[in-house]
Request: fold
Amino acid sequence: MTMEAGPAITGGRTALGIELGSTRIKAVLIGPDHEPLAVGSSDWENQLVDGLWTYSLDAVRAGVQESVATLADDVRRRHGVDLSTVGGMGVSAMMHGYLAFDADGELLTPFRTWRNTNTGRATVRLSVEFGVNIPHRWSVAHLYQAILDGEEHLGRLDHLTTLAGYLHWQLTGEKVLGIGDASGMFPIDSSTGGYDATMLARFDELAAEAGVELTLADLLPAVALAGRPAGTLTAAGATLLDPSGRLGPGIPLCPPEGDAGTGMVATNSVAPRTGNVSAGTSIFAMVVLEHELTRVHRELDLVTTPAGDPVAMVHCNNGASELEAWAGLFTEFARALGSEVGTSEVFETLFAAALGGASDGGGMLAYNYLSGEPITDLEEGRPLFLRSPDSRLDLGSFMRTHLYASLATLRIGMDVLQRTEGVRLMRMFAHGGLFKTEGVAQRFLAAAIDTPVSVGDVAGEGGAWGIAVLAAFAADRSSGRCAPEQALADYLDTRVFTGATLQTVHPDPADVEGFDAFMRRYVAALPVERAAVAHVAVGRRQTADSEPTATVPTEEEPA
Reply:
């Protein structure tokens, strides 16, 4: 492999993808056959500062540099060459949120991530005015909430972007977004492939009514489809990525995308009636639609694939973090008994136990809400476990309950899509840390959505690989290695996933019945979770004059 990969690397016949996830920044280098040649990463954590979840831009730069440096080290170790150029590259990151800059490029307020749910008044008003669901985490909701709150920085606002858009701007000087990421900032008009002009004009009117004069179209990044060029790496951008100076400027970049879009690419789920579920810190489903939905549903976001096709998104803020907390407790207990077990072994043992648990969770209930959950109308969360006096507390049922809980909010949104709207799926692909233990969460997801669920080797490196594939797609189009009119779905089918191996699990009737019973209890007891939010204070919540910041430890990819 080294003899084949070395010339491809030195000759620039590669593509580099960088993705900023919620707990890890990852870089992947792929070869002409789209197979990974090297990887690098850097861990980071969000912080709760003054009641809002954020990451610092210094942490962005430091994490990207570390991930590229460890990638370059991996290239040297595996292939014996230096990484000095690539044929194309792209960046991806968590979608949505609020990054606001002035005309000098200075950040006006700390980055407000997708995780924040302080935009309730904005989402209600905008959803009514636009006639589409505007979720809490969308950039336009954050902007309008800032307007409603009369924030001082609005008078100096020059442009808005997402995390991927920010990094791309720093690397190329171009203020542009891939259409999938852009669709999480503001609604897209599928007929034009740009922001909806009518809604843009109405937003300007709403801002004026609140005393703020702006033209939103001038604040948002330009929109680009997959396969289009989106600038080249500048000298400053090259220094940002690689302060050692080995990586040179001039590399073409594809449009930056959000993690949902790169997840669709990484699972070959960009064609109608395909979908994927990604489960890590958050959990979300993306389903590519054949036709428009019949009406607005607050449980569903309407976004797009990187090629601009309409997608229904069920996004849940809370995923596997609470499972990890319980696994950490069991690990601590095992070590207290003198057993030095690894994290992977603990997860595998606990997940395997869940297979033998009661199909309905044995009367137990859990809510994995570390943060707010808009689908269930909660602006804050409190992790909660409860059971009735007659429920039996055994390990298998306990773990099945927590695995069911990690999928329960997703199920609420999928019910709207599948049962209310009648959307049919040919396949659902599952990826992310929740599905690493073979056959457990996959089986429970199949029961939750009553649909066959596939896992496999096609998303091994996740979204970083997905954006690298999009970079290769753009490079192949510009160089003539593929036809300029070739669709992304066809490119993936014929050039990328020809040898993919999948394992598919079909719903087990007993599991389906058990999950349905669990969901009836779960929905009925939601007032208990709301009462916990109302009556249990967060002891580590920061005040304006406090110095330390609280962090929630999360692991993006549990075993």
Notes: The two ends are 28 Å apart (CA to CA).
